[in-house]
Task: structure prediction
Amino acid sequence: MRKTNKNLREIFANGGMAKVMAAHDPLSAILVEEAGFDGIWASGFEYSAAMGLADVSLVSMAEHLNNMRNMAHRTSLPIIADVDTGYGNAINVIFTVEQYEAAGASAVVIEDKMFPKVTSLVEGGRQDLVSIAEFQGKIEAAIHARKDPDFLIIARTEALIAGRGEVEALERAQAYEAAGADLILIHSKQKTPDEIESFVSNWRGAIPIVIVPTAYPQMTEARAKSLKKIGILIYGNHAVRAAVTGMQNVLAQIIRDGGIQNANETIVPVSEIFRLQNMDRVKKNEKRFLR
Result:
């Protein structure tokens, strides 16, 4: 597994909570690292959005994989890869895990929806789940496929998203732990943290919980830590939303002002882009090697 400057397993094994931010390309991954997060969430939602596509399994595994590989080349943070349903059945999961581990991921998150999936937070979206037994087979296949035992297999249950309730969510989580998952990701689209806090308080498993508080932003890091069972907190889509906000504002200003004379003062200078591109290193190498 690719060597990183942080180890997610060490963070939560020692009682900490890893803070992970979504990214959708190498540039956003670099910014996540510079901001001080513990890891990168290679988000399927963000990458689909960056391609202008709905997050409904339209983007292929090869495209997601190549994007994640490019992130790994430009950062030293551990990357948690969002692989949706594993791109098929348990046999597809074996190939997926092999490929993502080889490409530099530190973990994969596999969810218990049917393929093709529909993104979780869309209003009225189809949220069909596979059986518990079928998903246990996927988890067991993922564990069989990984080469490094520190490569994390995170089982994501969408029972709350699908309206199945806490009892089934806990049942699924317990079954996925029994199948060998390293962590359980529980997702909710409720606007307050109550549903998640209830699940966590009733969780009796030995493995940590992962949460993604996109829909319930009142779940601060301090509040999550107070639950004492959260191993990883993922900010699921804020990078691409911030990028859209910034571009919409600046583009509208240019149209409004009839030029870039004002917008130019509110955006980073070209020199900052050169820095992120490592142009200084390119120039040094040109002086050293070009004949």
Summary: Residues 35 and 195 are 30 Å apart (CA to CA).
